[in-house]
Amino acid sequence: MYGKALVAASTIALMSSQAYAQNAEPFTGAYGDLGFGYENNNVSINEDVLNIKELGFDADGLFLDLGLGYRYQFQNNFVLGLEGRFDYSFADTKVGSEPLGLQTNLEKGRSFGVNGTIGYALSDRTLANVKVGYVNSKVTADPLDKDLDDASKNLDGLRLGGEVNYMLTSFMGVRAGMDYTFYNSLSNEKLGGIGFELDDATVAPGIDLNSWRVGTGIFVQF
């Protein structure tokens, strides 16, 4: 009797394993994910007119993100994909410098973008990939001088990163990754009190923003 029970248990375990493999491999199909993480934004401000080479500030904070995408796994286990992403950052910093008259809260808000991904299925549960894509982020300057209005600018950037996905079930898993974004520069633009008038001309500093972040989350494969 015990022998029959052991055979039955082994058969059930084998069938369950095969069912998982059929559902989890390949990593082909649509997916959605929800995550959170920490990011650091390096803000550099410079002004050639005043011979100020560079002022550096760090804007740290948490972020939440949401993604939707589609990927296809080839027989050689390489996986190609395309995804759209939306995230919201709570990172901010206070910039202040007497030479430029800067007294402003600089805040990063929403971002959206699209990434192309290429990866390799290390097993029927584990996928490692790298990504490259476009991102657009909103940056807001909130002057401490309430006589000045808030000002917002949209920055375009190039995002590079890597990620590991691990399937917990046949349709749901966890992910963890890191990415770095190079944004375009703001130059000769007066942003929320950052800048002033001099000899009937606007003296505005150049603002450079680069960002790195680490995050984790869950995903569901449809």
UniProtKB/TrEMBL annotation:
Which positions make up the signal peptide? 1-21
Residues in domain Outer membrane protein beta-barrel? 10-188
A Pfam family cross-referenced in the UniProt record is: OMP_b-brl
Arranged from A to Z, the UniProt key words for this protein are: Signal
Q: Supply the source organism for this entry.
A: Rhodothalassium salexigens DSM 2132
Q: Which InterPro entries match?
A: Beta-barrel_OMP, OMP/PagP_B-barrel
**Alphabetical list of Gene3D superfamilies matching this protein:** 2.40.160.20
Q: Would you say which domain of life the source belongs to?
A: Bacteria
The protein's name is Opacity protein-like surface antigen
